[in-house]
Design brief:
Elements: H1 2-15, E1 18-23, H2 26-30, E2 35-38, E3 49-52, E4 64-65, E5 80-81, E6 85-89, E7 98-104, E8 118-120, E9 126-128, E10 133-137, E11 146-150, E12 160-163
Antiparallel strand pairs: 1-4, 1-12, 2-3, 4-5, 5-6, 6-7, 7-11, 8-9, 10-11
Protein backbone atom coordinates (compact mmCIF):
# COMPACT_ATOMS: atom_id res chain seq x y z
CA UNK A 1 0.00 0.00 0.00
CA UNK A 2 2.78 2.43 0.92
CA UNK A 3 4.58 1.61 -2.34
CA UNK A 4 1.45 2.33 -4.41
CA UNK A 5 0.91 5.63 -2.61
CA UNK A 6 4.54 6.61 -3.11
CA UNK A 7 4.39 5.75 -6.83
CA UNK A 8 1.22 7.83 -7.28
CA UNK A 9 2.85 10.75 -5.48
CA UNK A 10 5.98 10.52 -7.65
CA UNK A 11 3.87 10.35 -10.82
CA UNK A 12 2.02 13.48 -9.73
CA UNK A 13 5.27 15.27 -8.89
CA UNK A 14 6.62 14.56 -12.37
CA UNK A 15 3.33 15.53 -14.02
CA UNK A 16 3.41 18.99 -12.43
CA UNK A 17 7.05 19.84 -13.15
CA UNK A 18 8.11 23.22 -14.54
CA UNK A 19 6.76 23.96 -18.00
CA UNK A 20 7.55 26.82 -20.33
CA UNK A 21 4.54 28.19 -22.20
CA UNK A 22 6.01 29.32 -25.51
CA UNK A 23 4.30 31.34 -28.21
CA UNK A 24 3.62 29.38 -31.40
CA UNK A 25 3.36 32.56 -33.50
CA UNK A 26 5.27 32.00 -36.79
CA UNK A 27 6.65 35.57 -36.86
CA UNK A 28 8.48 34.88 -33.59
CA UNK A 29 10.05 31.70 -35.01
CA UNK A 30 10.96 33.54 -38.22
CA UNK A 31 12.88 36.04 -36.09
CA UNK A 32 14.73 33.06 -34.54
CA UNK A 33 13.35 33.81 -31.06
CA UNK A 34 11.86 31.58 -28.42
CA UNK A 35 9.32 33.64 -26.52
CA UNK A 36 7.82 32.53 -23.21
CA UNK A 37 4.90 33.60 -21.07
CA UNK A 38 6.64 35.27 -18.12
CA UNK A 39 6.14 37.22 -14.91
CA UNK A 40 9.00 39.39 -13.66
CA UNK A 41 7.77 39.87 -10.08
CA UNK A 42 6.34 37.44 -7.53
CA UNK A 43 3.53 39.70 -6.33
CA UNK A 44 -0.24 39.94 -6.60
CA UNK A 45 -1.44 41.69 -9.78
CA UNK A 46 1.99 41.46 -11.48
CA UNK A 47 1.47 41.65 -15.25
CA UNK A 48 2.05 38.63 -17.47
CA UNK A 49 4.20 39.36 -20.52
CA UNK A 50 5.98 37.75 -23.44
CA UNK A 51 9.74 37.48 -22.79
CA UNK A 52 12.64 35.86 -24.62
CA UNK A 53 13.38 32.48 -23.01
CA UNK A 54 17.05 32.64 -22.20
CA UNK A 55 19.06 29.56 -21.22
CA UNK A 56 20.40 30.09 -17.73
CA UNK A 57 18.26 33.22 -17.33
CA UNK A 58 15.73 33.82 -14.58
CA UNK A 59 13.92 30.54 -15.21
CA UNK A 60 11.57 31.03 -12.25
CA UNK A 61 9.92 33.90 -14.13
CA UNK A 62 8.75 31.59 -16.92
CA UNK A 63 8.49 28.14 -15.30
CA UNK A 64 4.79 27.37 -14.89
CA UNK A 65 3.19 24.41 -13.12
CA UNK A 66 0.42 22.80 -15.14
CA UNK A 67 -0.98 19.37 -14.19
CA UNK A 68 -0.61 17.03 -17.18
CA UNK A 69 -2.29 13.77 -18.11
CA UNK A 70 -0.65 11.82 -20.94
CA UNK A 71 1.59 14.81 -21.60
CA UNK A 72 -1.26 17.34 -22.02
CA UNK A 73 -3.37 19.52 -19.74
CA UNK A 74 -6.80 17.97 -19.13
CA UNK A 75 -9.85 20.09 -18.39
CA UNK A 76 -10.16 23.47 -16.70
CA UNK A 77 -7.39 24.04 -14.19
CA UNK A 78 -5.13 26.58 -12.55
CA UNK A 79 -1.81 27.53 -14.13
CA UNK A 80 0.67 28.28 -11.33
CA UNK A 81 3.95 30.17 -11.05
CA UNK A 82 6.18 30.80 -8.02
CA UNK A 83 4.29 27.98 -6.24
CA UNK A 84 1.34 30.01 -4.97
CA UNK A 85 0.44 32.49 -7.74
CA UNK A 86 -2.01 31.71 -10.56
CA UNK A 87 -2.66 33.08 -14.02
CA UNK A 88 -5.86 35.15 -13.93
CA UNK A 89 -7.73 37.89 -15.78
CA UNK A 90 -7.50 41.36 -14.24
CA UNK A 91 -10.73 42.29 -12.44
CA UNK A 92 -12.37 39.08 -13.80
CA UNK A 93 -13.65 41.06 -16.79
CA UNK A 94 -14.43 39.18 -20.00
CA UNK A 95 -13.59 42.06 -22.32
CA UNK A 96 -11.51 42.20 -25.47
CA UNK A 97 -7.96 43.30 -24.65
CA UNK A 98 -8.38 42.79 -20.88
CA UNK A 99 -5.01 42.39 -19.11
CA UNK A 100 -3.79 39.07 -17.72
CA UNK A 101 -1.94 38.98 -14.40
CA UNK A 102 -1.11 36.68 -11.50
CA UNK A 103 -2.88 36.45 -8.17
CA UNK A 104 -2.88 34.18 -5.10
CA UNK A 105 -4.14 30.74 -6.09
CA UNK A 106 -7.48 29.58 -4.75
CA UNK A 107 -7.35 26.06 -3.30
CA UNK A 108 -7.91 23.20 -5.75
CA UNK A 109 -10.41 23.63 -8.56
CA UNK A 110 -12.65 26.12 -6.82
CA UNK A 111 -15.66 26.73 -9.06
CA UNK A 112 -16.39 30.06 -7.33
CA UNK A 113 -13.20 31.44 -8.86
CA UNK A 114 -13.41 30.68 -12.56
CA UNK A 115 -11.06 33.64 -12.97
CA UNK A 116 -8.12 31.24 -12.46
CA UNK A 117 -9.37 28.32 -14.56
CA UNK A 118 -7.92 27.73 -18.02
CA UNK A 119 -8.50 24.95 -20.56
CA UNK A 120 -5.89 24.01 -23.17
CA UNK A 121 -8.08 23.28 -26.21
CA UNK A 122 -7.51 21.25 -29.38
CA UNK A 123 -6.23 24.36 -31.18
CA UNK A 124 -3.44 24.80 -28.57
CA UNK A 125 -5.22 27.83 -27.13
CA UNK A 126 -5.70 28.57 -23.44
CA UNK A 127 -9.43 29.25 -23.09
CA UNK A 128 -10.47 31.21 -19.98
CA UNK A 129 -13.08 29.58 -17.72
CA UNK A 130 -16.35 28.86 -19.52
CA UNK A 131 -15.97 31.77 -21.93
CA UNK A 132 -15.07 32.12 -25.59
CA UNK A 133 -12.03 34.20 -24.61
CA UNK A 134 -8.44 33.07 -25.01
CA UNK A 135 -4.98 34.02 -23.83
CA UNK A 136 -3.54 36.25 -26.55
CA UNK A 137 -0.56 38.48 -27.34
CA UNK A 138 -1.02 42.25 -27.47
CA UNK A 139 1.97 42.15 -29.87
CA UNK A 140 4.86 39.80 -30.67
CA UNK A 141 7.51 42.18 -29.30
CA UNK A 142 9.63 41.20 -26.30
CA UNK A 143 7.90 42.53 -23.17
CA UNK A 144 4.44 42.67 -24.76
CA UNK A 145 1.49 42.22 -22.42
CA UNK A 146 -0.69 39.14 -22.54
CA UNK A 147 -4.38 39.88 -22.87
CA UNK A 148 -7.75 38.23 -23.21
CA UNK A 149 -9.40 38.23 -26.65
CA UNK A 150 -12.19 36.29 -28.37
CA UNK A 151 -10.92 32.84 -29.40
CA UNK A 152 -10.20 32.42 -33.12
CA UNK A 153 -9.16 28.98 -34.33
CA UNK A 154 -6.81 30.45 -36.95
CA UNK A 155 -5.21 33.05 -34.69
CA UNK A 156 -1.42 32.81 -34.69
CA UNK A 157 -1.12 34.95 -31.56
CA UNK A 158 -3.32 32.61 -29.49
CA UNK A 159 -1.35 29.40 -30.16
CA UNK A 160 0.91 28.01 -27.41
CA UNK A 161 3.46 25.23 -27.12
CA UNK A 162 4.22 23.55 -23.79
CA UNK A 163 7.88 22.69 -23.25
CA UNK A 164 9.08 20.61 -20.32
Amino acid sequence: MLTQTLLKFLALAVAVSAIQIQSADPSIFDAKRVACVAVKENREAAPVTLQNCLPGGDAASYDWAIPLESGKPNGAQQIRIFGDQCLEVKDSLDEEGQAVQIGPCWPGRVSENDNQLWTFDKYSHFRWGNTNSCLDLASTQNGAALVLNPCYTRSTTQGWTLKL
